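User: Please fill in residues for this 458-position structure.
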């Protein structure tokens, strides 16, 4: 059962800062917080809702712990629709912990990760898609991700789901009423209208499914895998792109035994870079594991960067990787152009038609050309942001796919000329699948799993 006791947590980052916020929510929030606060005149319970007040946090002996600003918001006009008190104190981790300990001593419980947002969901302030958008918003790493999360938080998914569910439910209700009372309600001509409604819903759901990959690129970034044989400069390339020495660079082949993953922004576009172990034949068991992981990442890549050592003749491993990348979305970097170049573009063209960029991790030559290529491809071809609905995770996708398939079954039944009573089962299946997107039907375990992914204090 959903707990309605009073909870508290530090709502700001733990790295320290000028100000920190401690959030308290529950039916007894004001009552529980009042004993640890001191104001010049009134008590906390005497203040009006949605007001801010200067005061002090005091311990059990009346000693001042910190000077604070206190914000009081009484339910249902609060984030959780419960009484909420926020204490803004100085950003010292020690002060925050001392205030939190004082709150816990009054009978307040430490909040679980995501519990404030969970209460907002359980109390009907937001639906599940909006709750998930809160987490996406916190984790946004690009302007596209921020826009997508805000759109979902403002209810773009919720509104569309409600529209489609209403249409489905109205059709089911009409069929059921006509079957129960055929003398007064006729189904004549209804199938044509039903077919139009079903086709509209299928079309809308298909858009969501088709946009799922774009939504993933917006949130998680372009999964960009760096491959090449050992010692061609993959780790040096990663460091050059990041502008920091993130990867270990030596002249010893096979230094990178596992994948290194980092995010980098190109304007409004986010790249999730994966530096992989050099792909080649080896008897080293640890290195073999790294190579297998490199191949797994390659299979999931949105974009692949193959690095070749231009100062050496093409090896068999290079030729093999050139053939591999021919089936992928990617580019070939001919690295070490600051040295004596022994590989020409025509040597590479035998194996692939991918774009070839002359590059140097030492001088940065070719970096701008690479960035422009990636921006051009993903900005124009895939990530032109608009008012489309971008579902934000695999759970939502599965719900949309399930509803889509159920409505396709209805369409097939109509085309086969089956009776109206055949339609209602699949219509209701689509209705329930859509409901799971916004949390209309959600078991406790799934709810716990979703909100457990949130940060503490949110």
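Assistant: Residues filled in for all 458 positions:
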């Amino acid at each position: 059962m959903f707990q309605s006791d009073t909870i508290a947590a530090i709502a700001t980052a733990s790295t320290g800062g000028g100000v920190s916020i401690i959030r308290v929510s529950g039916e007894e929030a004001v009552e529980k917080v009042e004993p640890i606060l001191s104001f010049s005149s009134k008590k906390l319970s005497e203040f009006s809702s949605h007001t801010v007040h200067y005061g002090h946090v005091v311990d059990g002996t009346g000693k001042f712990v910190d000077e604070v600003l206190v914000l009081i918001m009484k339910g249902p006009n609060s984030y959780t629709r419960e009484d909420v008190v926020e204490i803004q104190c100085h950003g010292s981790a020690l002060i925050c912990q001392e205030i939190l300990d004082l709150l816990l001593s009054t009978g307040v419980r430490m909040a679980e990760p995501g519990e404030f947002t969970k209460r907002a969901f359980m109390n009907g302030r937001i639906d599940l898609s909006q709750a998930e958008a809160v987490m996406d918003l916190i984790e946004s790493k690009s302007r596209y991700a921020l826009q997508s999360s805000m759109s979902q938080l403002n209810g773009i998914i919720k509104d569309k789901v409600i529209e489609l569910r209403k249409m489905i439910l109205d059709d089911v209700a009409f069929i059921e009423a006509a079957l129960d009372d055929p003398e007064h309600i006729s189904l004549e001509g209804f199938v044509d209208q039903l077919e139009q409604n079903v086709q509209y819903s299928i079309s809308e759901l298909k858009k969501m499914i088709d946009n799922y990959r774009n939504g993933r690129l917006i949130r998680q970034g372009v999964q960009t895998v760096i491959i090449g044989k050992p010692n061609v400069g993959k780790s040096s390339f990663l460091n050059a792109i990041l502008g920091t020495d993130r990867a270990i660079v030596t002249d010893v082949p096979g230094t990178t035994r596992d994948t290194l993953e980092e995010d980098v922004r190109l304007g409004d576009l986010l790249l999730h870079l994966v530096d992989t172990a050099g792909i080649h034949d080896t008897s080293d068991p640890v290195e073999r594991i790294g190579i297998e992981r490199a191949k797994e990442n390659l299979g999931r890549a949105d974009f692949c960067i193959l690095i070749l050592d231009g100062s050496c003749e093409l090896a068999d491993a290079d030729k093999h990787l050139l053939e591999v990348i021919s089936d992928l979305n990617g580019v070939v970097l001919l690295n070490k152009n600051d040295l004596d170049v022994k590989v020409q573009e025509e040597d590479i063209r035998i194996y692939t038609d991918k774009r070839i960029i002359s590059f140097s991790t030492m001088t940065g030559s070719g970096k701008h050309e690479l960035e422009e290529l990636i921006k051009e491809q993903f900005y124009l071809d895939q990530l032109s942001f608009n008012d489309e609905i971008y579902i934000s995770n695999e759970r939502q996708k599965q719900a949309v796919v399930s509803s889509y398939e159920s409505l396709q079954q209805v369409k097939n039944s109509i085309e086969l000329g089956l009776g109206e009573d055949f339609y209602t089962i699949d219509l209701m299946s689509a209705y329930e699948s859509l409901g799971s997107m916004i949390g209309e039907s959600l078991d406790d375990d799934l709810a716990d799993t979703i909100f457990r992914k949130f940060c503490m204090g949110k």
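For context: The radius of gyration is 29 Å.
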